[in-house]
Design a protein that fits this description.
Length: 445
């Protein structure tokens, strides 16, 4: 297998149809409390791409959804996220909404609910795509005229204020944009965050009082086809801290050794320091043109002292892992638990994503649920049993692909003991290709 085809082989290959299925078979018993939609998104090229010219991050977006209610799995749907090209190919009108910066991208990286809307998200300058409740494309969204450029795939929802914090970047801008989106879905602030180049900024962190930015050594590079960002250790590596409400010019940068973080687990204030737990790669985007190919992704704790200009680093777990998630109710606050996907291989092609890890960062212990041979899993999403239940009292939801059956299941596992028998398993009518992120969007109370 050539490296340019890794991200089109096996369960990375796209599915060819949009499917709607109702009343899905369930093994075990779905908790009555699960009333909402589990949504997941990833690349799924509509037209079979030339493997030599394909980068996994650039595939057309496809959203998958499973509707749970009253102990039943009411439906599964998968839909391409429309842009002009996909709409045209399917004989449909171009979705409404302006294209930003010529980047008419079919969002493929994250899907969230916010302000009563469902949004498919991508970074690097393209607009979010608003979806209907049943996952049809509604429009390219500029948040009712309040979003100046593109958005991000990884906004952070402050569980206390309900505001979304986002760090957007776009090669055509000389700075990052720190955006705050209100509970009504409108941008309420936009601060320019100065950086010395054009970094790829995949994610950010918040504490209860501060925003944290990752200005890392992956930078815009048109010579790097087809994906125009590449590993650039000479750029340096810095982490920025900015109090909420302060002007962007007041961000305090702290230098670090080169590394790359796609995904922080969470961050919180500890006195004047900021603690961030991250999945740290030694390097990224430096081998092959088909995908990220990270190196040694593992969970680390960085304790940032902005006043001293120092970061204390400590590896928390030496197993290769990615897709770290916390209970969304503790975002920005001290967390005890995290869930992540353990990788059998030491790189982040995501081949060998076969183990669900639960980290107890207070006790310093962990659980591991390794799935049977031939089963590959995706990101795990925690859903609390109730709004006031304890931090690991609830379920984790994840998709697992079974190569022997060539289909996927939605697993509902006990979040407190991920090694226990599954609470329930929903059988899907088709496989869900390897993808990126998902979320549980609970029904409005
Ligand atoms: Fe991501």
């Amino acid at each position: 297998m050539t490296e340019t085809s890794v991200y089109l082989a096996g369960n990375f290959a796209p599915v060819a149809e949009e499917v709607t299925a109702t009343n899905l078979p369930v093994r075990g018993r779905l908790p009555e409390e699960l009333s909402g939609r589990y949504l997941r998104i990833g690349p799924n090229p509509l037209v079979p791409p030339d493997p030599a010219a394909y980068h996994w991050f650039l595939g057309d977006g496809m959203v998958h959804g499973i509707r749970l209610r009253a102990g039943k799995a009411e439906w599964y749907r998968n839909r391409w996220v429309r842009n002009q090209a996909i709409a045209e190919a399917r004989g449909e009108p171009d979705p409404p909404g302006e294209v930003h910066g010529g980047m008419d991208f079919s969002a493929n990286t994250n899907v969230i609910g916010h302000g009563g809307r469902t949004l498919a998200l991508v970074e690097a300058g393209a607009r979010p795509i608003e979806l209907s409740w049943d996952l049809e494309t509604v429009r390219r969204s500029d948040f009712q005229g309040t979003l100046p450029n593109g958005f991000t795939a990884h906004p952070k929802l402050d569980p206390v204020t309900g505001e979304l914090h986002a760090c957007a970047y776009y090669w055509g801008l000389p700075h990052l944009q720190y955006l705050v989106v209100g509970t009504d879905g409108l941008v309420v602030s936009n601060e320019a965050i100065p950086v010395p180049g054009s970094p790829m900024v995949h994610d950010m962190s918040i504490t209860g009082t501060r925003a944290v930015f990752y200005d890392q050594p992956v930078t815009f590079d048109l010579s790097s086809a087809p994906f125009p960002y590449s590993w650039n250790p000479d750029y340096g590596n810095r982490i920025g801290v900015l109090p909420f409400g302060a002007p962007g010019s007041e961000v305090v940068w702290v230098e670090m050794e080169p590394s790359y973080v796609f995904h922080p687990l969470n961050a919180y204030d500890e006195g004047e320091t900021v603690v961030v737990d991250v999945v740290r790669h030694d390097r990224i985007f430096d081998r092959g043109a088909a995908g990220p190919y990270g190196s040694n992704p593992a969970l680390w704790r960085w304790t940032i002292d902005p006043a001293a200009g120092k970061v204390h680093t400590e590896q928390l777990d030496d197993r290769p892992s990615e897709f770290p998630r916390v209970d969304e109710r503790v975002v920005g606050r001290r967390h005890r638990y995290g869930w992540s996907v353990g990788l059998a291989a030491g790189d982040s092609s995501l081949y060998g994503a076969d183990t669900l890890l639960k980290h107890d960062l207070v006790a310093g212990t962990s659980q591991a649920r390794t799935f049977p041979a031939g089963v590959g899993i995706g990101e795990a999403v925690f859903v609390p049993r109730s709004p006031i239940s304890a931090e690991d009292d609830g379920w984790v939801l994840l998709l697992a692909y079974d190569a022997a059956r060539d289909t996927s299941d939605l697993f509902v596992l006990d979040a407190a003991d991920v090694t226990a028998e599954p609470v329930a398993t929903v059988e899907l009518p088709q496989r869900v290709p390897e993808g990126f992120h998902g979320n549980w969007v609970a029904d409005a109370p």
